[in-house]
Design goal:
This protein has about 200 residues and is mainly alpha-helical. The chain is built from eight helices and no strands. Helix 1 runs antiparallel to helix 2 (about 30-60) and helix 1 (about 5-25) packs antiparallel against helix 6.
Protein backbone atom coordinates (compact mmCIF):
# COMPACT_ATOMS: atom_id res chain seq x y z
CA UNK A 1 0.00 0.00 0.00
CA UNK A 2 1.28 3.49 -0.89
CA UNK A 3 2.22 5.39 2.28
CA UNK A 4 0.41 8.49 0.98
CA UNK A 5 -2.89 6.72 1.59
CA UNK A 6 -2.33 6.89 5.35
CA UNK A 7 -2.15 10.68 5.06
CA UNK A 8 -4.81 11.33 2.41
CA UNK A 9 -7.52 8.84 3.41
CA UNK A 10 -8.39 10.58 6.72
CA UNK A 11 -8.43 13.93 4.88
CA UNK A 12 -10.75 12.59 2.20
CA UNK A 13 -13.03 11.10 4.87
CA UNK A 14 -13.28 14.42 6.76
CA UNK A 15 -14.04 16.46 3.62
CA UNK A 16 -16.56 13.92 2.33
CA UNK A 17 -18.32 13.88 5.69
CA UNK A 18 -18.43 17.70 5.73
CA UNK A 19 -19.89 17.74 2.22
CA UNK A 20 -22.58 15.22 3.16
CA UNK A 21 -23.55 17.06 6.35
CA UNK A 22 -23.77 20.36 4.45
CA UNK A 23 -25.87 18.69 1.76
CA UNK A 24 -28.45 17.55 4.32
CA UNK A 25 -28.72 20.81 6.29
CA UNK A 26 -31.47 22.51 4.21
CA UNK A 27 -33.68 19.42 4.50
CA UNK A 28 -33.84 19.51 8.32
CA UNK A 29 -37.22 20.51 9.70
CA UNK A 30 -36.45 20.97 13.43
CA UNK A 31 -34.33 23.70 14.99
CA UNK A 32 -32.66 21.32 17.46
CA UNK A 33 -31.46 18.99 14.71
CA UNK A 34 -30.33 22.01 12.71
CA UNK A 35 -28.26 23.27 15.63
CA UNK A 36 -26.64 19.85 16.19
CA UNK A 37 -25.79 19.42 12.51
CA UNK A 38 -24.29 22.89 12.23
CA UNK A 39 -22.10 22.00 15.22
CA UNK A 40 -20.93 18.82 13.48
CA UNK A 41 -20.36 20.74 10.25
CA UNK A 42 -18.33 23.41 12.01
CA UNK A 43 -16.13 20.77 13.66
CA UNK A 44 -15.64 18.87 10.38
CA UNK A 45 -14.79 22.02 8.42
CA UNK A 46 -12.25 23.18 10.99
CA UNK A 47 -10.72 19.68 11.17
CA UNK A 48 -10.49 19.48 7.37
CA UNK A 49 -8.84 22.88 7.12
CA UNK A 50 -6.40 22.12 9.94
CA UNK A 51 -5.39 18.74 8.48
CA UNK A 52 -5.03 20.13 4.95
CA UNK A 53 -2.92 23.05 6.15
CA UNK A 54 -0.77 20.73 8.29
CA UNK A 55 -0.05 18.40 5.35
CA UNK A 56 0.70 21.29 2.97
CA UNK A 57 2.99 23.07 5.45
CA UNK A 58 4.80 19.83 6.35
CA UNK A 59 5.27 19.07 2.66
CA UNK A 60 6.70 22.54 2.01
CA UNK A 61 9.12 22.32 4.92
CA UNK A 62 10.39 18.87 4.01
CA UNK A 63 13.20 18.72 1.46
CA UNK A 64 13.06 15.00 0.72
CA UNK A 65 10.75 12.64 -1.14
CA UNK A 66 8.72 11.53 1.84
CA UNK A 67 5.09 10.44 2.05
CA UNK A 68 4.17 13.93 3.29
CA UNK A 69 5.87 15.54 0.27
CA UNK A 70 3.95 13.37 -2.16
CA UNK A 71 0.70 13.83 -0.23
CA UNK A 72 1.18 17.61 -0.25
CA UNK A 73 1.75 17.50 -4.01
CA UNK A 74 -1.52 15.58 -4.35
CA UNK A 75 -3.31 18.28 -2.35
CA UNK A 76 -2.15 21.13 -4.59
CA UNK A 77 -5.47 21.15 -6.48
CA UNK A 78 -7.47 20.97 -3.23
CA UNK A 79 -5.73 24.06 -1.85
CA UNK A 80 -7.86 26.42 -3.97
CA UNK A 81 -11.35 25.23 -2.90
CA UNK A 82 -10.06 24.79 0.68
CA UNK A 83 -9.10 28.49 0.62
CA UNK A 84 -12.66 29.34 -0.48
CA UNK A 85 -13.93 27.24 2.45
CA UNK A 86 -11.68 29.15 4.86
CA UNK A 87 -12.68 32.56 3.48
CA UNK A 88 -16.42 32.08 2.83
CA UNK A 89 -17.84 28.87 4.25
CA UNK A 90 -16.48 29.08 7.81
CA UNK A 91 -18.12 32.48 8.35
CA UNK A 92 -21.46 31.31 6.92
CA UNK A 93 -21.46 28.14 9.05
CA UNK A 94 -20.73 30.24 12.14
CA UNK A 95 -23.72 32.46 11.32
CA UNK A 96 -25.93 29.42 10.80
CA UNK A 97 -24.91 28.00 14.15
CA UNK A 98 -25.62 31.24 15.97
CA UNK A 99 -28.96 31.56 14.16
CA UNK A 100 -29.93 28.03 15.15
CA UNK A 101 -28.77 28.76 18.72
CA UNK A 102 -31.70 31.14 19.14
CA UNK A 103 -33.93 28.07 19.28
CA UNK A 104 -31.82 26.19 21.85
CA UNK A 105 -34.57 26.43 24.47
CA UNK A 106 -37.17 25.04 22.04
CA UNK A 107 -35.44 22.34 19.96
CA UNK A 108 -38.71 21.03 18.53
CA UNK A 109 -39.51 24.36 16.89
CA UNK A 110 -39.76 24.01 13.09
CA UNK A 111 -36.61 25.29 11.41
CA UNK A 112 -37.43 28.65 9.78
CA UNK A 113 -37.33 28.83 5.99
CA UNK A 114 -34.83 31.68 6.24
CA UNK A 115 -32.39 29.50 8.15
CA UNK A 116 -32.86 26.65 5.71
CA UNK A 117 -32.37 29.02 2.76
CA UNK A 118 -29.13 30.28 4.32
CA UNK A 119 -27.99 26.67 4.77
CA UNK A 120 -28.69 26.00 1.08
CA UNK A 121 -26.48 28.87 -0.10
CA UNK A 122 -24.02 27.56 -2.72
CA UNK A 123 -21.04 28.97 -0.80
CA UNK A 124 -21.67 26.48 2.01
CA UNK A 125 -21.95 23.04 0.44
CA UNK A 126 -20.31 23.63 -2.96
CA UNK A 127 -16.78 24.56 -1.75
CA UNK A 128 -16.84 21.62 0.68
CA UNK A 129 -17.88 19.17 -2.03
CA UNK A 130 -15.37 20.54 -4.54
CA UNK A 131 -12.62 20.24 -1.91
CA UNK A 132 -13.65 16.63 -1.24
CA UNK A 133 -13.56 15.92 -4.99
CA UNK A 134 -10.11 17.54 -5.30
CA UNK A 135 -8.76 15.49 -2.38
CA UNK A 136 -10.14 12.35 -4.02
CA UNK A 137 -8.37 13.32 -7.26
CA UNK A 138 -5.14 13.70 -5.25
CA UNK A 139 -5.81 10.30 -3.71
CA UNK A 140 -6.01 8.50 -7.07
CA UNK A 141 -2.24 8.46 -7.79
CA UNK A 142 -1.65 6.94 -4.35
CA UNK A 143 -4.11 4.21 -5.30
CA UNK A 144 -2.25 3.59 -8.56
CA UNK A 145 -4.45 5.65 -10.93
CA UNK A 146 -2.78 8.78 -12.30
CA UNK A 147 -5.14 10.72 -14.54
CA UNK A 148 -2.44 13.09 -15.68
CA UNK A 149 -0.21 10.30 -17.01
CA UNK A 150 -3.10 8.58 -18.74
CA UNK A 151 -3.81 9.19 -22.45
CA UNK A 152 -7.10 11.00 -23.05
CA UNK A 153 -6.98 12.91 -19.75
CA UNK A 154 -9.13 15.70 -21.24
CA UNK A 155 -12.31 13.58 -21.05
CA UNK A 156 -12.23 12.89 -17.28
CA UNK A 157 -11.18 16.48 -16.53
CA UNK A 158 -14.02 17.95 -18.60
CA UNK A 159 -16.42 15.54 -16.89
CA UNK A 160 -15.20 16.71 -13.47
CA UNK A 161 -15.61 20.39 -14.41
CA UNK A 162 -19.12 19.76 -15.79
CA UNK A 163 -19.99 17.80 -12.65
CA UNK A 164 -18.93 20.73 -10.45
CA UNK A 165 -20.99 23.11 -12.61
CA UNK A 166 -24.07 20.88 -12.31
CA UNK A 167 -23.65 20.65 -8.53
CA UNK A 168 -23.33 24.45 -8.35
CA UNK A 169 -26.49 25.02 -10.40
CA UNK A 170 -28.37 22.51 -8.24
CA UNK A 171 -27.33 24.32 -5.04
CA UNK A 172 -28.28 27.69 -6.54
CA UNK A 173 -31.75 26.43 -7.53
CA UNK A 174 -32.37 24.91 -4.11
CA UNK A 175 -31.25 28.11 -2.39
CA UNK A 176 -33.54 30.16 -4.63
CA UNK A 177 -36.52 27.91 -3.92
CA UNK A 178 -36.04 28.09 -0.14
CA UNK A 179 -35.41 31.85 -0.26
CA UNK A 180 -38.77 32.28 -2.02
CA UNK A 181 -40.48 30.44 0.84
CA UNK A 182 -38.70 32.62 3.39
CA UNK A 183 -40.06 35.85 1.88
CA UNK A 184 -42.99 37.53 3.64
CA UNK A 185 -46.40 37.40 1.94
CA UNK A 186 -46.88 39.73 -1.02
CA UNK A 187 -49.39 41.87 0.89
CA UNK A 188 -46.87 42.65 3.61
CA UNK A 189 -44.20 43.47 1.04
CA UNK A 190 -46.48 45.82 -0.90
CA UNK A 191 -47.64 47.54 2.31
CA UNK A 192 -44.05 48.04 3.42
CA UNK A 193 -43.12 49.42 -0.01
CA UNK A 194 -46.06 51.83 0.07
CA UNK A 195 -45.04 53.00 3.53
CA UNK A 196 -41.51 53.62 2.33
CA UNK A 197 -42.84 55.73 -0.54
CA UNK A 198 -44.88 57.94 1.81
CA UNK A 199 -41.88 58.75 4.02
Amino acid sequence: MDDRLAVLLPLAAVWLAAGLVAEGLPGLDRAGAFRRRTGWLSALVLAGLALTAAVLVAGLQSAGDTALDRAAAGLAVAAVPATVVAVCTVRRVRRLRSGAGVFAAAPDTPAPHGLRAAAAHPLIALPLQVTALAVLLGLLPAAGVDLFDTPGVAGPMITAVLGVAVIGVRHALRHSRLAERARPPAEAVSARSAGALHV
